């Protein structure tokens, strides 16, 4: 099952919901001098197509380790991981690089846009790596930028855009290959409240179109946009529940206004 590079607006049909992510008893161990650090201690997790999941947990709980494995940037020490039905243990480094480019759209806390390149040129990059021709690249990048509300900012360089706009451009870059999974690590970590909500409304819209979104956050008011919350503690899943995202969001907005506390429970 290879996800072809297709028009960014296609993924709206949800007749079946195959698993985009299946983890079984995943252990990740790091060697630190002469001791072993167990960053993940047996994680099993299924994420279906169309899910919108927030991965939460305190610093050191294993969020980034999990993200690196799910994003095919690292491999488990033990256990199994299937990405979109493919057992990643069967893949070599070249295959992993290819699967990252085709199946996963990454969004990082620090945007990672190239300076002195227009928004549209930045968004085209994953298509360039995938060998798509320039004219077709430009067409799809323009569609992706329109999808995140940046249709009027195609020619702007990162320095000419606000933080929220830069992150929306990064989201456009993440969706331009029509990936099976959008994977975001603290995507609002560098943004003020208004820009954060702006970027989260883009993720919510992508989810509404049927896309699969996994985002890592330690903020409750950001997790409130997701329909499912998975909490990690000391390398283990300690909670996994569904929520009514609209209701959860309403609670947090009311709470934030009442207490000026921002991220509250
Ligand atoms: N490359 C590494 N080498 C050694 N220990 C690591 C490495 N990466 C993470 N760890 C350890 O694994 C645990 C989980 O880390 P991490 O996944 O970064 O957590 P989080 O992203 O939730 O803060 C921590 O104890 C951390 O110190
Ligand atoms: Mg981390």
Topology record:
Layout: E1 19-32, E2 35-48, E3 52-57, H1 63-70, E4 78-83, E5 86-87, H2 93-103, E6 104-107, H3 119-129, H4 134-147, H5 163-175, E7 181-185, H6 193-208, E8 213-216, H7 220-223, E9 228-233, E10 236-242, H8 245-259
Parallel strand pairs: 3-8, 3-9, 6-7, 7-8
Antiparallel strand pairs: 1-2, 1-4, 4-5, 9-10
Question: How does this model look, in words?
Answer:
The chain is an alpha/beta fold. It has one domain: 3-Layer(aba) Sandwich (Rossmann fold), CATH 3.40.50.300. Helix content is 35%, strand content 26%. The chain has eight helices and ten strands. It has helices at residues 63-70, 93-103, 119-129, 134-147, 163-175, 193-208, 220-223, 245-259, and strands at 19-32, 35-48, 52-57, 78-83, 86-87, 104-107, 181-185, 213-216, 228-233, 236-242. The strands form two sheets. The chain has a six-stranded mixed β-sheet, sandwiched between helices. The protein is globular and about 50 Å long. Bound molecules: adenosine-5'-diphosphate and magnesium ion. Adenosine-5'-diphosphate binds next to strand 1, strand 2 and helix 1.
């Amino acid at each position: 099952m290879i996800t072809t590079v297709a028009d960014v607006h296609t993924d709206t049909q949800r007749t079946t919901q195959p698993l985009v992510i299946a983890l079984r008893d995943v252990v990740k161990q790091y060697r630190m001098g002469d001791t072993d650090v167990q960053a993940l201690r047996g994680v099993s997790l299924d994420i279906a197509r169309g899910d919108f999941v927030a991965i939460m947990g305190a610093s050191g709980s294993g969020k980034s380790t999990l993200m690196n494995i799910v994003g095919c940037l690292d491999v488990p020490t033990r256990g199994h991981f299937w990405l979109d039905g493919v057992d990643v243990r069967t893949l070599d480094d070249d295959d992993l690089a290819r699967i990252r480019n085709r199946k996963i759209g990454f969004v990082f806390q620090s945007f990672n846009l190239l300076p002195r390149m227009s928004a549209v040129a930045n968004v085209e990059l994953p298509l360039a790596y995938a060998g798509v021709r320039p004219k077709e690249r430009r067409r799809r990048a323009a569609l992706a930028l329109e999808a995140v509300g940046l249709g009027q900012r195609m020619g702007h360089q990162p320095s000419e855009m606000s933080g929220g706009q830069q992150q929306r451009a990064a989201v456009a870059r993440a969706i331009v290959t029509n990936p099976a999974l959008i994977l975001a690590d603290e995507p609002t970590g560098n943004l003020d409240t208004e820009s954060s909500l702006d970027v989260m409304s883009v993720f919510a819209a992508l989810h509404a179109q049927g896309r699969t979104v996994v985002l890592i956050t330690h903020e409750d008011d950001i997790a409130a946009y997701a329909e499912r919350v998975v909490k990690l503690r000391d390398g283990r899943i300690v909670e996994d529940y569904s929520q009514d995202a609209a209701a959860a969001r309403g609670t947090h907005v009311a709470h934030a206004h009442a207490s000026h506390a921002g991220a509250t429970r």
